[in-house]
């Protein structure tokens, strides 16, 4: 279906500002306004990445900036947080089912499925997800999907 990205992002930002008061959640739409994709699946990917950005950031620096832009025949969604970061040696593990980085941030009620689920969904949608992170500084997740408009 044809998704209006501005409407989609507004809805998500409103929902998560309500869910997480004080969370600084922003988005920027660059040169792209609509996308043919499954809105529910894309929403699940956003949900997992937003929940993670909130959970794995310290009180007072809970923020997430989502930038959406085109690159060749792909659309990119960049999620940048200022959270606790992920050790370099763990980066290859975090997309595995039930994998969680050992830290005091490991919360009850989290099982380590969010990113594995995102990766499977995105593969199903002919997309992908990558991560960059600096321990103590923050993480960037880059989601790519084919740009069908
Ligand atoms: P679930 O998503 O099932 O509730 P979870 O959040 O622990 O549990 P994932 O979303 O798959 O599981 O993430 C796996 C691990 O990667 C997390 O346990 C956490 O250690 C690390 N991680 C994920 N996102 C971030 C982030 N934005 N900043 C720092 N660490 C992260
Ligand atoms: Mg998660």
UniProtKB/TrEMBL annotation:
Organism of derivation: Olivibacter jilunii
Name recorded for this polypeptide: histidine kinase
Coiled-coil features, chain-numbered ranges: none
Taxon lineage: Bacteria, Pseudomonadati, Bacteroidota, Sphingobacteriia, Sphingobacteriales
Domain Histidine kinase: 1-149
Superkingdom field: Bacteria
């Amino acid at each position: 279906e044809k998704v209006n990205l501005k409407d989609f992002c507004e809805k998500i930002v409103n929902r998560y500002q309500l869910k997480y008061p004080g969370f600084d959640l922003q988005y920027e739409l660059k040169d792209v306004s609509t996308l043919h994709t499954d809105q529910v699946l894309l929403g699940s990917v956003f949900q997992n990445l937003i929940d993670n950005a909130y959970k794995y950031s310290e009180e007072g620096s809970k923020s997430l900036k989502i930038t959406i832009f085109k690159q060749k025949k792909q659309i990119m969604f960049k999620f940048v947080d200022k959270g606790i970061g992920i050790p370099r040696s763990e980066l290859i593990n975090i997309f595995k089912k039930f994998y969680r980085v050992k830290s005091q941030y490991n919360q009850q009620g989290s099982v380590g499925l969010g990113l594995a689920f995102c990766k499977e969904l995105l593969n199903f949608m002919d997309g992908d997800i990558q991560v960059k992170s600096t321990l103590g500084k923050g993480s960037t997740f880059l989601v790519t999907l084919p740009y069908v408009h």
